[in-house]
């Protein structure tokens, strides 16, 4: 039977990094991963970042809805259409605002009997755990029915901080294994059992935030990316995009994490929708994005005079 592993966690916690680690380790051990990616805006952009690890017909992007509710039927249909493979394993990355408890409540209903009951793996950014202000409740819910909790960003925190976070996680979910990424035994993942922990009640609508996207022009240099990201309101918790830098043949991918850090890296291939700026969080409106682009480019133009 094929295991289904759903990876959840707050925006910027490290879900994609963990998913890439899972793919590499499973593939190296003779498994055949099928990957499903969910995001409010243009999940295809994220999917293209995995084409060097997984064949394109084994990657599915699910955009425009949340798999913890409105997108659950589509997710279920995708899973049921996955072709049988020798040593198959299905990996699902939920968007960073998913109600992880609702996801696990509904995901296992109506799945073909060739699949094992889904298990959930949560990613926790130790440095920023429960420092999300009004979003702390959502972050806490995202670990309460997980079978495994993976700690990230350990290199930026003290041992005392790690121990305090681990103690808090155990209070919220005493049944979960808590582990660092490097200590995961990949062959044991499909053997994990679904969590029997009882989660606290959560107002589901708190997991649904605004999202938006708009076209990006070709940019003069990477300074433009930083300028645009700096012009977007801090209430927007996740910013990502793909664009062309003038004079470069390939596209460039960028993201602004919830803590404000901006990361830039090469993009694999050509984005299906062209250059885009995408945002998630309060204040995500197309007019806000367009003003940030205009203001950011004006600042760069002035600085280059």
What would you say this structure looks like, in words?
With 305 residues, the chain is α/β, with parallel strands linked by helices. The protein is 28% helix and 23% strand. It contains eight helices and twelve strands. The strands form two sheets. Strands 3-2-4-1-5-6-7 form a seven-stranded parallel beta sheet, with helices on both faces. A five-stranded antiparallel beta sheet has the order 8-12-9-10-11, covered by helices on one side. Helix 6 links the parallel strand 6 (148-152) and strand 7 (177-180). Helix 7 packs across helix 8 (286-303). The radius of gyration is 19 Å and the shape is globular. The mean pLDDT is 88.
Subunit organisation of the chains: single chain
How helix-rich are the residues, as a percent range? 25-40%
- Tell me the Rg in angstroms: 19 Å
**Which percent range describes the beta-strand content?**
15-25%
Strand ordering within the main sheet: 3-2-4-1-5-6-7
Silhouette: globular
Give the helices and strands as they follow along the chain.
EHEHEHEHEHEHEEHEEEEH
Give unreliable regions as ranges. Answer: none
Task: Return the average pLDDT rounded to an integer.
Answer: 88
The SS-based structural class is: alpha/beta
Distance between the termini: 63 Å
Number of E strands: 12
């Amino acid at each position: 039977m094929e295991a289904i592993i759903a990876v959840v966690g707050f925006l910027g916690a490290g879900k994609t990094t963990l998913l890439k680690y899972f793919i590499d380790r499973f593939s190296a051990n003779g498994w055949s991963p099928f990957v499903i990616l969910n995001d409010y805006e243009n999940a295809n952009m994220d999917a293209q970042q995995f084409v060097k690890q997984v064949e394109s017909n084994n990657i599915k992007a699910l955009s425009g809805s949340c798999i913890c509710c409105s997108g659950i039927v589509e997710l279920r249909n995708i899973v049921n259409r996955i072709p049988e493979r020798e040593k198959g394993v299905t990996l699902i990355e939920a968007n960073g605002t998913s109600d992880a408890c609702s996801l696990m409540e509904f995901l296992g209903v109506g799945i073909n009997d060739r699949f094992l009951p889904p298990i959930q793996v949560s990613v926790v950014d130790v440095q920023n755990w429960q420092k999300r202000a009004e979003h702390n409740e959502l972050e806490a819910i995202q670990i309460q029915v997980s079978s495994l909790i993976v700690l990230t960003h350990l290199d930026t925190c003290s041992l005392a901080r790690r121990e305090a976070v681990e103690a808090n996680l155990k209070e919220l979910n005493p049944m979960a294994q808590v582990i660092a990424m490097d200590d995961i035994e990949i062959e044991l993942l499909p053997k994990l059992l679904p969590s029997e922990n009882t989660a606290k009640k959560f107002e589901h609508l708190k997991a649904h935030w605004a999202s938006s996207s708009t076209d990006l022009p070709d940019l003069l240099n990477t300074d433009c990316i930083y300028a645009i990201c700096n012009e977007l309101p801090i209430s927007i918790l996740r910013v990502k995009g793909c664009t062309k830098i003038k004079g470069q043949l390939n596209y460039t991918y960028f993201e602004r994490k919830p803590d404000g850090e901006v990361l830039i890296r090469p993009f694999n291939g050509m984005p299906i929708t062209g250059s885009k700026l995408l945002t998630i969080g309060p204040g995500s409106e197309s007019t806000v994005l367009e003003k940030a682009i205009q203001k950011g480019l004006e600042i760069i133009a002035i600085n280059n005079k």
